[in-house]
Amino acid sequence: SELDAASFVNLIGRVVKERYIPHSSPRYCSSMFHQHPVRDEDRNNFKPDEILIADDLKERGRNELGWPDFDEILEVKPDGKLEEEVAQCSRYAQSIFDAQPGRRFVPAVVIVGSYFVLLIFDRSGVIASERISVHKSPQKLLRLIVGLLFADREHIGMEPTLEKRDKKLYITTG
Predict the structure, then answer these.
(1) pTM, two decimal places
(2) Torsion angles phi and psi, residue 65, rounded to 5
(3) What b-and-e string marks burial along 45-76, b requiring 16 or more CB atoms within 10 Å of the CB?
(4) Which end of the chain is less enclosed by CB atoms within 10 A, N or C?
C-alpha cells in the first residue's frame, strides 16, 4: 500500500541518518495525497502516491502543502503498464515546474510490480532508466532511495542561485 511504501522509505532514511550521517536531515516521504488531490489552482485533481518533501514540512497537513513544496515523486503500483505511470508522472512533474519557476529538473521513481524505473523530467522532456528488477537488484533500489532522501537540493533539480524571500524570487551571484 501507499502508506507502507512511505513508511518503508522513511525507515530507510532514519536508519541511514542514525548509523551513517547523524547531522543530516533526510527528506520525508508522505502518502497524504494518494486519495486526496493536491490543492491546485488549475483544479487538476492529481493524486500522487508518494511525495518527498523537506523534513521540516512533515508536520504540515494536506491543506498546507502543494506543488511548490514537493521535491520528488514516487508512484507505486502493484501492477499496470509502465507507460501509463510515466505519463501520470509527467503530469505531476509539469505541475511542479509550474509551481517552482526556477526548477531545472524533477526526479520521479515508478515502481510497477517487481520493477522500478528512475525518471528525470526537465523542461523539454524525460529521460528514463532501464527497467530494474527489485528482486534481482535490491541494492540499486536502496541506493536510489538513499540518494533521493539525502541529496543536496541542487542535485534534485533546484536552482542554487535562486532565493525566495517575501514571496519573490531573487538571483544570488558571487
Answers:
(1) 0.92
(2) -115, 155
(3) ebebbbbbbebebeeeeeeebbbebbbbbbbb
(4) C
